[in-house]
Amino acid sequence: RVNGVLKSIVLSGNELGAEGWCAIFAALRDNKENKIESWDVSDQGINTEIAKVLAEYVSVSGVLNSIDLRFNGLLGDEGKGAIRDAVNGREGFELEM
Fold first, then answer.
1. What angle do CA 90, 95, 97 make, to 5 degrees?
2. 12: Cβ–Cβ under 8 A, 6 or more apart, which residues?
């Protein structure tokens, strides 16, 4: 039997849209057992709506320590602020925007 743990996800360049991303991040927010440490969601069209749900997930995840959000031109100041607030005070957290 193999007991593997998903720790890093690279979904750069996919087109999941707001509905897909919000569903993923909401499910992870509600699943306290997830062990994902790193997300690369660069070039995804992440907008403010998605960023807010992502921020909710980030704020409750004790293991997540890295997010790459580069090349998401729709993120906006409000979305960036939500993400920054969620990682504020988390020493060693790597945030790329």
1. 145
2. 40, 41, 42, 43, 44, 68
66 strand-pairing partners: 38, 94
- Distance between CA atoms of residues 97 and 18, nearest Å: 18
pLDDT tens figures, 40-97: 998 889 999 999 999 999 999 989 999 999 998 888 999 999 999 999 999 999 999 9
* 1-10, 11-20, 71-80: which is most confident: 71-80
- Burial of residue 64 (CB within 10 Å: 0-12, 13-18, 19+) is buried
CA angle 48, 85, 53 (to 5 degrees): 40
Taking the C-alpha atoms of residue 52 and residue 59, their distance in angstroms, rounded to an integer, is 11
What is the value of pTM for the model shown?
0.88
**CA nearest to 52, candidates 35, 76, 88:** 76
